[in-house]
Amino acid sequence: VRSSVKEAGVGYTAIFGGAQVPIVFCGFLIKCSPISEYVLPDYLFYLLRTERMRTIIVGLSNRANITNISQSALRNLTIPIPPLSEQQTIVARLESERAEMEMLKGLIVRMEGKIKERVAGLWGERWNMKDERWTTIHRIYRIREGWGRGKVISKS
Fold first, then answer.
1. Which entry of 8, 25, 101, 134 is 20 to 30 Å from 146 by CA?
2. What is the pLDDT of residues 91-110, one digit of tens each?
């Protein structure tokens, strides 16, 4: 991303895997095509998203109403490039961690669903809502107006 309203958005990387139809990218993007003899696209993607590299990239940007980074600033950015085999190892490990995080996110969603079901079940076991006596809130609570010690507008 070349330009961003938010400072954290400038220079944020993404990988485009291609499309079935011809595409054009907008002027707010900078297209970077890694040279495969030196760097893996996935390695560069993960590297440029690290906190350290994000700090460097944001530091290279110009700030006004929109934070902007120039192609020349990116062109002169220095990055660590280990051998391709080590890059592959790094990417494989990061992809494994990412997959585990996605699995855990799914587990959290499932567990939250189970909690909701159990809570609903507890309420259902406790009350048959048709048989309960219903009342308005003001009959069982003192409702005060404003902050702190406002005047009581309803009494139980």
1. 134
2. 999 999 999 999 999 999 99
pTM for this entry: 0.54
Residue 68 belongs to what H/E stretch?
Answer: strand 67-68
First-to-last alpha carbon distance for the chain, in angstroms, is: 60
| Dist CA 80 CA 44 (whole Å) | 10
143 CB-near residues (< 8 Å, 6+ apart): 137, 152, 153, 154
Chain CA centroid to CA 137, Å: 40
The alpha carbon of 75 is separated from its chain's Cα centroid by a whole number of angstroms, namely 27
Spatial CA neighbour of 156 closest among 146, 144, 21: 144
Q: Are 42 and 89 in contact, with CB atoms under 8 Å apart?
A: no
